Amino acid sequence: MAIIKSIRSIRTRSDGSWTIVQVNTSQDGLYGIGSASDLYNPEAVVQVIEQLFAPLLIGRDTSQIEDIWQTMQHSGYWRSGSVTQTAISAIDMALWDILGKEAGLPVYRLLGGPARSAVPCYGHASGESVSELIESVQRYLEDGYSVIRCQLGGYGGGGFVQGSEARLPEKAWIQGRFFDEQAYLHSVPAMFEQLRLEFGSGLGLTHDVHEHLSPITAIQLAKRLEPYSLFFLEDALPPDQLGWYRQLRTLSSTPQAVGELFTNPQEWLPLVQERLIDFIRMRISKAGGITACRKIAAVCEAFGVRTAWQEGGENDPINQAAAVHLDLAIWNFGIQEINHFHEKELEAFPGHIRRIGGYLYPSDKPGLGIELDETKLNRLRQKDWECSSYHRPYPLDRKADGTIVRP
Known about the structure:
With 407 residues, the protein is α/β, with parallel strands linked by helices. 38% of the residues lie in helices and 17% in strands. Strands 4, 5, 8, 9, 10, 11, 12, 13, 14 and 15 form a 10-stranded mixed sheet that branches. A 3-stranded antiparallel sheet has the order 1-2-3, sandwiched between helices. Helix 8 (245-251) links the parallel strand 9 and strand 10 (256-258). The mean pLDDT is 94.
């Protein structure tokens, strides 16, 4: 029996934005790792782990994963917030990692074994113009992808207008570009029309709205995209307006993927129960870890909803590994978002997930199959970086009159 001896937080990456949790046990050399990365509140997550959870869990049997998850979930009384959920997720991943190492099995085998031979993933193509985007899509095709996300630049791309080209109010808050819903509503369907003319109907295409639209405009966009047969439209509506998915489902057949910002079951459960979405999109390290996400997947299976766990460019290799282990074992898996890392980053995580063409493959080593090379982890950090100095608020877009566009 392995007992939790200590819980350690490791801040790394060039800017310190990755947080890795290491759960050490009473057995020499036996430890587990999990992802506690949060780009916008990294040190807050560390403090929850070190001040709340570590004192609570030291001395516990590592195999009591479900009871430990329930203990953490309710230990702060208020629950399902993003910071607490990230801390819970990291420790939960680490406990599954330990269980796999004790059993001598990869985590996906503990979850019931493989339901597929590999994990299909989708690439992220983008360009400042449609011609640039077509070139980007072509590169992903040549690299073996069969599903590709397509964006005109960053989120909201196609909907940005330069202030010099518009009638702005006096003393305008916008000095550069602003977001215009109508521009977006016209440019995105036109983009997909050209993509279908270029690549035909066989290629899977997705698009991320990133919650930039008002509800009625989101419905109009979904309807206009129907002729282009998207694999899915992602986050058409913000968490504040989920009730509008009923109208969206009634008025449009474009498949919907949602959940990147979800941390509370009451956000996703009504959407699944009413069959209003087609793909659930939470991040493993935000939804409560492997324990929570296997339950989420089971509920979704009963209602015909598939998984498409969110990855995100700022995420770390451990969250990716946890997602891929779930992907292999869950019958109602849909697609996995890809994340690309620099070679030096991957060298710090031996046993990381491998991508070959449009598929992902985990290590068959026990647990999550991924380890830490602490010497190389330390080298990832810039010499002048300090924990206390890191802070990066989410960059918000605005409309012409200065109104914030909610993510």
